[in-house]
Amino acid sequence: MAGFVSNCPVTRTLTSYLLEDPLKTYHAKPGEVEREWLLVDATDMVVGRLASEIAQILKGKRKPVYTPHVDTGDFVVVINAEKVRLTGNKANTKNYYSHSGFPGGLKEVSFQRMLEKHPERIIEKAVKGMLPKNSLGRAMNRKLKVYAGPEHPHEAQKPRQITLEA
Length: 166
Fold this sequence. Notes:
Number of domains: 1
Mean pLDDT: 91
Largest sheet: 4 strands, parallel
Structural class: alpha/beta
CATH architecture: Alpha-Beta Complex
Low-confidence stretches: none
Shape: elongated
Radius of gyration: 19 Å
Number of strands: 6
Strand order of the largest sheet: 5-2-1-6
């Protein structure tokens, strides 16, 4: 480990940190997290399985520098959200609920209607439910970009296409 030299600032910091005292646990600082842009094609993927994989990426759990109290995740761009699917009979029976806060203000939207009107909200709601329910979870959720069709405005960030096992 003493002769190891890397160009990556995170690895360099981690290496020097471990050389100081090898028994210390490394905790990533918010300023030294390197974020990457990832592109996911949601065509013919099951919503829940896709959402759990995306949530893991947004949390940063796939990185060696993962720290629970720091947002270490990457940006995720999801395309073709209109082509997701559900298993079993859920496509006919699943409903999404929201409440206005006033008496009798419960609203119900079926999966089919949501897929027609706002297909990106299906993935957004599924992923949001799998993230922490605090300010850290809201920061993670802001890194998720979902688009109904194959086009997205993030070409300048050069997102790397990945295939998920969902």
